[in-house]
Write a structure and sequence with these properties.
By secondary structure, the protein is of the alpha/beta class. It is built from twelve helices and 16 strands. Strands 1, 4, 5, 6, 7, 8, 9 and 10 form an eight-stranded mixed sheet that branches. A six-stranded mixed sheet has the order 12-11-13-14-15-16, sandwiched between helices. The chain has a two-stranded antiparallel sheet with strand order 2-3. The relative contact order is 0.15.
Length: about 350
């Protein structure tokens, strides 16, 4: 690698300073991917018709704000619309530099995570012949996005070059998932790339379904994944505040009346998480990243049941469930002061809407 650095004459890169100057001068710059040397499809997109979610009448009338969507989630939840899912694409760049979470190439840049230094870093510590950067800004920000998206894109990256991610520290959960999924990324904060590939992998196409199914199977085969009634994933006060009043009381009600397991992912390790969630016919909890643990390991014919705050209804999980052939159910929570209230009766009646399933063990 040192020889490559010497050959490239790139011990230092002044692109961060030039990029900062363009920003100050408000010089218009195209997105990085628009300046790729070459781009191509790795997997085709496709059109699918969305199924209806499971919910009680008038639930959608409570929704007054939504996130990660430009329109009210009504059409998405009612189903029946044709959705075009984008292909997975690759973008090739030459003579690029990654410094402090920012990739610089072709006179422009893309932030893979927020910079950690106010003064741009310039020194390059290593060179990589052909890298494939699978991490994204959302994945470096939110654990759920990392597990849902970046880990799936890793499988594309390992076929295109050295799988590369930024050098920031990761949680113990992320470390364990990498080990369980057989991921061996190269972490770096300062590198020159003779060639580097970025990906656009946000479409819920058939290939992404295949890769996510392979992730699910690699986890489920390590534990007893026989079907069981369900698991309630506690969120508590973790992360961005979305506190469900009576959360534990609801979980204990479902444990007592329907045989659910109760799990607080923040208080346990990945081995326990996978053992508890694998085979769940229903995974339930307030909308948040903690649901990803169950979504990744639940029974392939199961249903994700999301308790949706009325003022931040998130449809993202519905798209994933549609892609993977899972059911999707929800109850809309009403705000009570800073927190949210839940009706046990509404949860029970919504569960009763779900199609009956056989819970016989292997």
């Amino acid at each position: 690698m040192l020889n490559l650095l010497r050959a490239s004459n790139q011990h230092f890169s002044f692109e961060p300073l030039l990029d900062l100057g363009r920003t100050v001068a408000r010089t218009g710059r195209p997105p990085l991917r628009a300046r790729a040397v070459r781009s191509w499809d790795l997997a085709p997109g496709h059109v699918m018709r969305s199924p209806r979610a499971w919910f009680l009448p008038d639930q959608l009338d409570r929704v007054n704000r939504w996130v990660f969507s430009s329109e009210h989630p009504r059409r998405c939840m009612i189903g029946g619309e044709e959705i075009q899912h984008a292909p997975a694409r690759a973008f090739l760049f030459r003579d690029a530099c990654l410094l402090d979470g920012v990739l610089y190439a072709a006179g422009t840049s893309e932030h893979l995570r927020p910079r950690t230094h106010r003064v741009p870093r310039l020194r390059l510590h290593e060179a990589i012949e052909r890298g494939a950067i699978y991490c994204t800004h959302p994945g470096n920000t939110w654990f759920g996005q990392w597990l849902l998206d970046d880990c799936a894109t890793y499988r594309l990256a390992e076929n295109e070059g050295t799988p590369v991610t930024t050098g920031q520290s990761i949680s113990r959960h992320a470390q364990d998932y990498e080990a369980w999924l057989g991921m061996q990324p190269h972490r770096t904060e300062s590198a020159f790339f003779k060639e580097v590939i970025l990906f656009h992998d946000t479409g819920h196409n058939r290939d992404k379904h295949r890769r996510f199914a392979a992730m699910r199977e690699s986890l489920r085969t390590r534990v007893d994944a026989r079907p069981h009634p369900g698991v309630f994933l506690l969120r508590g006060t973790a992360g961005e505040r979305r506190v469900l009043t009576g959360e534990l009381a609801l979980a204990e009600h479902l444990q007592r009346t329907r045989g659910f397991r109760i799990l607080d992912p923040m208080r346990t390790d990945v081995a326990t998480i996978v053992r508890t969630c694998a085979g769940a016919r229903v995974v339930m909890g307030i909308e948040g990243s903690q649901l990803i643990h169950g979504l990744l390991t639940m029974d392939p014919d199961g249903t994700l049941f999301v308790l949706q705050p009325q003022d931040r209804f998130c449809p993202n999980y519905k798209h994933i469930c549609d892609r993977d052939g899972l059911g999707f159910a929800f109850v809309v929570l009403q705000r009570s002061g800073e927190d949210y209230d839940v009706s046990l009766d509404e949860v029970d009646r919504t569960l009763d809407l779900l199609p009956p399933t056989s819970l016989t063990t292997n």
